[in-house]
Each structure stands twice: as C-alpha cells, then as structure tokens.
Amino acid sequence: MSKFGNPNIFYDKASKEELKTDYWGYIPKSIDDAINYVINNDEKNVLSDNKFNLLSTILRNYHKKLGIYSNKFETNLAKLRNGSIITGQQPIIIGGPGYIANKLSTLIKFDDEFQKRKHHLSPIFFIADYDGLQKEISKQYFPNPISHKAYHLDFQQFYGVDANTAVHSTVLPPEEYFKDLLSSFENNLNGFKKLISTDKRKLFTERWDHIKTLLLSSFYNSTTISELFTIIWGTITNIINDYGIIFFPTSNTEIRKLIYSEYNHIVNRIDDYITNYKLQTKKLENNQLSPPLPNKEEDYSPFILECNKDKNRLQTSIHYDGKHRNAIGKCNFCKKTYNYPINNLEDFEKISEIIGPRVDTSQVVFQKLLNIQLRISGPGEIAYFSQITRPLQKIGYQTPIYYKYKRVFYNTSWLEQLGKNIHEKNGNSIHQNVLFRILKERSNYLKKNNINKIRLNDLELNNFLQTQFNNLEKNNDLETSKYIGWQFGKFNKQKFGQEVSWSWFDLCIQTGLSDYLNTYIRSINIHSYPGGMNYINSML
Q: How far apart are CA 198 and CA 224, in angstroms?
C-alpha cells in the first residue's frame, strides 16, 4: 500500500473538509474557530495556590534577571490562573530563523483575540532547552548575494557536533569569536547593500546597526545559548514592543522540581502508553499516513537523564524485573553509568533536577502546571502529535487543540528587481501582476470581512506560490537559481521557505526592530484556514 504522506498534510486537508480523524482531537478551521472552541470547552485549572505562587515567583525572577520583565508580563502572569496558550522552540545561537517570529506573532494574535472576547489566558513561549546541541542550534543561514547557496555563521567550529550536550548548559563562545562571526556576516550583508538604491542605503545601515546592538547587548547579558536566545526575543516582544510574553525556561532547576510527579504518572502507566502508541502507529499506517516517530521498545523511557558532572544527556532506558523499575543511562563523556530506582514519587523527587522530557512528553509533563488550552505548532510538531495525542489521552492527560501557523514568504529590496527581470524573461517569477492582484483583493475582502472570499483568496495565493515555484525549478540558469534561493529559501533539497531557511535578520532589516513582529501580525487573518502559505510585501 502506498503511503499518503506526512500527517501534517492530512491535518491541512482535514481543516478544510469535514473529515473525521482520530489523531489530534478537534481540528480548528481558523483562529476564530479555535478561540470559540477553547471558550466553549474551557478546562479549569487545578493548580494549588502554593504551587501557583511558587511558579509565579520563579518566572518573575527569571524575567527580571534577563531584563525582559514588564508590567504587561505581570498582567499575563496573573492570567495563568485561567490557563495558557503556548508555542515554543529550541534556543538557537543568535535568534534563529524567521519562523520563530512567526510563532510569536501568531501567539500574540491569539492573545489579542482572546482578550477581545474577555477570555483571559497566558501567552507562553516554551524555551525548549532540554534538547541536545543539534547542528541547527549552532548554525544560522542567510541569503548569499552572489548565489542561491546559503551563507552561514557556523558556531559549530567552537561547539563541535556532540548532540548529547544539553542546550541549557551550553555556554557562549568568547566575545572576540562572537564579534568576528558578526563581522563576517556584515561583509556578506554589504553585498546586498550594493543592490538597493542609494537613497535607501542609510536606512539599511541604521537597521542593521540596531540589530547588531541588540545582539551584542544580549550577548553581554547572557552566559548560555538559552539565555542569549531568550533575551533577544524577550527584548523584541516585551521591551521594544509591549506584549508581555511569558518565556518559560523548561530546564530551570526549580521548575523541574514542580513537574517530577508527571514522570512518575507516565512510568506507572508506561505499558498502557506503549501499547496505545503502537496501536496509533498502526492506525496511521493503515490510513496511508507515514508515522513521524519510531516505534517504542519495552525499555522506552519517557525522560532523558543528565550526567551530574557534565550535563551530558544520557541514552536512557527503563528496566523492570517484575517488582522494581530502574532508569539507567551512560555518559558518553565521563563514561559513568547511572542507575536510579524509579518506583515512587520519592524516587523521582531525588532525581528531579537531572530529568528532561522527550519529544513526546515535552508538553504533557507541563500540562497540569500550565493548563494548556491551545498549542501553536509547525508541520513537524503537527505530524508527531498525530501519533502521540491519543496514547497520552488514554493514560489520563488532557491535551490542547493544535493550530498550525502559516508559512510566510516575503519581499525584500534585493528580491524585487531580480524577480521582475526573471518575469520578463519567462513569466515564472512571483513578482508579477498576478501576485499584486491577489494581495489587493485580499485587502478588499478583509475590509468587508468576507470570510468565504478571504478563504478562496488564501487558496489562490497558495496555488500561485506553489505553481510559480514548480515552474522556476524547471530552469537551470544561475539567475533563476539565485531567485529560488532568496525568495523561497531553497538552498538544499530539505529547505523550503524564507522564514524556515533564513535568519530573522533578513526580514527585520526591511521592517526595523519595532515593526518586525507587527509585520507578521498584520498578515494574520482570524478567518483564514490554518496552515498553508502567506505573503508579506515588505520593503525598505
């Protein structure tokens, strides 16, 4: 039987059609639909006063320490009594790709719409620093002024490639190393500066200087990758703008002490979880969908242990002799083997500071603490939630509804002229009258709040972008390849989408720091289907 493909594609299909699914729970048709569903199916918070007060103190101190605290943060923190809406990301060395801004902007849009309806939930951004030091965490990609191939800042030369190192413990490189890499990027950026009109070059330089100042200031106030990442985005969201986002440090020692009971619960139901996980995997396969996560063996552990000495993440497994369970892991650095009993709450409390979640448990271990009502996710998360949501519900966990944000494409000063040149040659560039007609119609439909027309316009834009990309790929000339790289972020087979490929600097230089997130927010419509593609016509 041939595979249908990635489950996130089926999510897109199900959000537009009346398809019954047993993967994610309720699939919203739009932001408006998601909000109505949450309001009508509100789950009350069961957090005790003592635990809430302790969590509030931890988060308040964390934000003050990093310099991203504000009155709006305090207001949003108080709303945590009612529950939360979340998104999140692994920390990336100097802020990461543009889709992080996309996630934050979608979170802010949801928060604003909930407030309009007098339903008060806390907007939370997970700092997923329990993961290992993967190569994407220490690399940043940028468009290259001379070809379609990416220019990249490579911090791997400093960090190496050991993915077992826990991100939350990963210290920053020396100051001179950091500044040298920023200088090398600035040299790359000068290639684009030459491609824009003389009257815009001063503004271009000023905006890069603002970004560079933010990066250096954040660096000097950080000690780890995780802190640097959080200060960059916390400054943009809470200081430059006043959105009061709550950045949630998932590996904070004090927070880990608040959730160890959840690991105990999962371990007590581990056989049921594995059984239902295998059934869900089989269900995906039977419905011609490819399971995104591998099957689980009998020694599966819902958490990862960390070495007491060097914070290396251990390859952790659970061993059960019929009476007692033990978590066992070996450190690749110091070669020490750890063996901990995990038979009750007291056992988990003793090791709470050295436990991090796996990808399939990273949400539910915080579910009761944060009463998560809605999660904003991308294609990867949407895919693996199809495999784990039902099994987690089977062992007693509430799960939120999942909203898939739109992938965003955008214009830049150096793209427009190249796009027009290519269109004149073969008509396949997106820089043509068809795009601007679609965008103009979208603006008119938004003014009239014509929901059906807005959705049809979305589908037309999606089809236009995909068709033009497919046509462009058929050409082999260097100019077209460069355009595909700059506009679609395609510099290798795995990459597609500017905001997926290119660093957040790429669009921010067009908008400036103060309007960067707002540029995304203005492009979001509450009646559009989830998923799909959007386009921002940004220019210097």
A: 39
Round to whole Å and give the CA distance between 386 and 306.
28
Give the pair of three-digit tokens for residue 44.
């009350």
Q: What is the mean pLDDT of residues 46-59?
A: 91
Instruction: Please tell me the distance from the alpha carbon of residue 45 to that of residue 49, in angstroms, as a whole number.
Output: 11
Q: C-alpha distances in angstroms, 371 versus 45, 46, 82, 310? A: 6, 8, 8, 33
3-state SS string for 205-265: HHHHHHHHHHHHHHHHCCCEHHHHHHHHHHHHHHHHCCCCCEEEECCCHHHHHHHHHHHHH
CB 306 within 8 A of CB 19: no
3-state DSSP assignment of residue 399: coil
pLDDT confidence band for 1 (50 / 70 / 90): very low
For 96-151, how does the pLDDT look when each residue is reduced to its tens digit (9 = 90+)? Answer: 999 999 999 999 999 999 999 999 999 999 999 998 888 888 889 999 999 999 99
Beta carbons of 237 and 101 less than 8 angstroms apart: no
Which H/E stretch holds residue 272?
helix 270-286
What does the block give as tokens for 464?
């236009």
Distance, CA of 444 to CA of 446 (rounded, Å):
5
CA distance 489 to 497: 5
Q: Are 520 and 99 in contact (CB under 8 A)?
A: no
Q: Are 357 and 130 contacting, i.e. CB atoms less than 8 angstroms apart? A: yes
Query: Mean pLDDT, to the nearest integer, of 12-17?
Result: 91
Pairwise CA distance, residues 93 & 136, whole Å: 9
Identify which of 531, 440, 431 has the alpha carbon closest to the alpha carbon of residue 487: 431
Query: Which residue type sits at 350?
Result: K
| Overall average pLDDT of the 457-480 stretch | 93
Distances from the Cα of 159 to the Cα of 128, 132, 475, angstroms: 19, 12, 39
The pLDDT tens digits of the residues spanning 184-195 come to 999 999 999 999
User: For 392-424, how does the pLDDT look when each residue is reduced to its tens digit (9 = 90+)?
Assistant: 999 999 999 999 999 999 999 899 989 999 999
The 8 Å CB, 24+ separation contacts for 217-222 are 219/172, 219/175, 219/178, 220/175, 221/66, 221/67, 222/172
